[in-house]
Structure prediction request, 139 residues.
Amino acid sequence: MKLGRIYAYWPEIIGADYANKALPVALKTRPVNKKNSQQKYDIEVTLCLITYSAYALPLSYQKERILGRIEHLFGERIVTDIKITQNHTFQKASTANKSTRISFANQEEINEMLKNITDEGLRERLEQFGQSLYQSART
Prediction:
């Protein structure tokens, strides 16, 4: 749900200049051992973005601004880091005709079906397959 909310407010979070040049694709969590605390573990949440290679460096300089805007949106610091990935499939998808893109609801359905797949390569291929099925159904 948090990724859906980030995705819904993405243009406000990242700014109009980068809204169609970088996309949030996942929230990854990992436990971190806490020192000097009664709680044994804390959870770190990383927001994973894909972008054009030309925008990866400028976006990395804006990580704190993006984290601050997400914190403002949720009222608390739920995302602790941002991982920016340069992805050639994003470049192809973002330059494709907008009418062939799948809806946010379809993408959420795909994400829900694939949430338990731990093999990253398999997950990416299945996600691409699901997207192409929804795209072909629209045409």
Remarks:
- The first strand starts at residue 22 and ends at 33.
- The chain has two domains: 1-95, 97-139.
